[in-house]
Amino acid sequence: MASTEQAVTEVVPHCTAADWDRIYALDEQALPSQSSAWTNAICVTGGYALKRRKYIFQDGTEAALCLFSKNHSITPFQIHRSPPAAWGFGGPISTRPLSSEHLRAILDDCARLPGAAMQIRPNPLVANIWSDAAAGSGWTALPRKAHVLDLQGGFEAVRNHGFLGRTRSHARKAERLGITVHSGSGAELVEEFDALFRLSILRWARKQNEFPWLASLRGQIRDPKKKFLEMARLCSDVVRIMIARKDGRAIAGIVVLYGNNAHYTRGAMDDQAVGNSGTNSLLQATAIKEACERNCRYYHMGESGESASLTAFKAQFGAVGHAYAEYFYEHLPVLSARKNIRTLGKKLIGFRDV
Question: What is the largest CA-CA distance in the chain?
Answer without folding.
Answer: 64
